[in-house]
Design goal:
The chain is an alpha/beta fold. It has 17 helices and 14 strands. 43% of the residues lie in helices and 15% in strands. The strands form 3 sheets. Strands 1, 2, 3, 4, 5, 6 and 13 form a 7-stranded mixed sheet that branches. A 5-stranded mixed sheet has the order 10-9-11-8-12.
Length: 397
């Protein structure tokens, strides 16, 4: 089979970004890579030191740390923090917090390490190699239901998913799930993307299976594999996750739908901040300090677009135009809010879809860390951006 130049570019991109498995918001795979990629190995500034920041601006840092120490949060119980992330723009709060010095402002020495799957991330938490991990909402909920003692205590991104289809089956974007009838669609089991597709198909009265009036879902081990399957003749459409919707469009594919534009999927929680339950209980000040840094990072993303894009590109090596589209194009929201209401709704949905058994989530959902962090920042600087976070928290807690 002869591939077009654009498809060859897709393959090249996927090979270059082989660690980009999408499973932070996607699959619960049994397969894991033998090694984890240290963020500092091939991207600058992946580790931020409180000491190095102090050398640049010691007086300013002293004043800011004093403010943090005097707040109701208290001093961090531990200052060396390891955060695991995936190769995705969805985790930009950590990138911005590191690049803009917000971690060191809180007296923290944070190391960011890139992993390749949600399974690796939860293993990192349970083996105490990680203090915090960004894990997709569906995997997080499934891990909890399986007995993993990990707690959701914040957010990273809402929405940001969709499906794309070969251009011979659609002449424009966002024609909806109806155009998937009779098609073979590549997806990943136990992923936010798959759950969203099943929700939309159910609402549209479309059955899953083979046939002209049905949608045949073909499952792959990772989102990377599902996306690459578009190069095969027997796959017509595939799930996508930030930033691959933008990449797919640049390669000539059409977007079936963006979840952010679907009424049934409004405010759909994606990646969550997850930690061991015991660690949150033992080190509340530490996690509050981290959350303060994430909240400040969110504020920065709302006030300095160009620098935010530059910060993200240091960790996610794609064109700036793709980052701009994914972060600022209206397809996702990168907020640290725990979005408990939306996540509980999602939990009920995936139980109904058969992803997992029902369980008591209350002991495994902590909103007090975020609330304490936000309250302490509001006491220092209650501008409109921070107030909007307060309003959102009150609406969705």
């Amino acid at each position: 089979m002869k591939f077009s130049d654009s498809k060859v570019k897709v393959i090249a991109f996927l090979v270059a970004a082989s660690m980009f498995t999408f499973t932070g918001c996607g699959a619960l795979n049994n397969s894991q890579s033998d090694t984890q990629q240290a963020a500092g190995a091939d991207k600058p500034a992946a580790t931020e030191s409180a000491e190095s920041q102090a050398e640049e601006s010691s007086e300013e840092k002293t004043a800011e740390e004093s403010s943090a120490a005097d707040s109701s949060t208290g001093l961090p119980e531990k200052t060396n923090i390891n955060i695991g992330y995936l190769n995705s723009t969805a985790h930009l709060l950590a990138f911005v917090a590191s690049e803009e010095g917000y971690f060191s402002d809180e007296g923290l020495n944070v190391t960011l390490t890139q992993f390749s799957s949600a399974a690796e991330l939860v293993n990192g938490l349970e083996s105490d190699k990680l203090d915090i991990a960004f894990i997709g909402s569906v995997p997080s909920l499934t891990f909890q239901s399986q007995g993993h003692d990990v707690t959701i205590f914040g957010g990273a991104m809402s929405n940001g998913h969709g499906y794309v289809i070969k251009s011979e089956f659609a002449d424009k974007d966002e024609l909806g799930v109806q155009i998937l009838k009779g098609r073979n669609v590549a997806s990943v089991k136990n992923s936010v993307q798959d759950a969203e597709l099943q929700i939309l198909l159910k609402d549209a009265g479309i059955e899953i299976g083979e046939g002209e009036d049905k949608v045949n879902i073909v499952y792959f081990d990772s989102q990377k594999d599902a996306y690459a399957a578009l190069l095969n003749n027997n796959i017509d459409a595939a799930s996508v996750y930030s930033p691959y919707a933008s990449l797919a469009k640049s390669q000539g594919y059409k977007v079936v739908y963006y979840c952010a534009h679907e009424k049934a999927l409004e405010n759909q929680p994606c990646c969550r901040q997850v930690a061991k339950t015991s660690a949150l209980n033992e080190n509340p000040n530490t996690y509050t300090a981290v959350e303060r840094a994430f909240i400040k990072a969110y504020h920065f993303t709302q006030t300095d677009k160009d620098k935010t894009i530059a910060d993200v590109q240091k960790y996610i090596d794609i064109d700036k135009e793709f980052i701009e589209t994914e972060v600022y194009g209206g397809y996702s929201v990168s907020s640290p809010d725990p979005d408990k209401k939306g996540t509980l709704t999602l939990k009920d949905t995936i139980v109904e879809l058969g992803y997992t058994e029902d369980y008591d989530i209350e002991p495994l959902y902590n909103t007090s860390i975020y609330k304490n962090a936000l309250d302490s920042i509001l006491a220092e600087d209650s501008d409109d951006i921070y107030k909007s976070l307060e309003e959102h928290f009150n609406d969705y807690e």
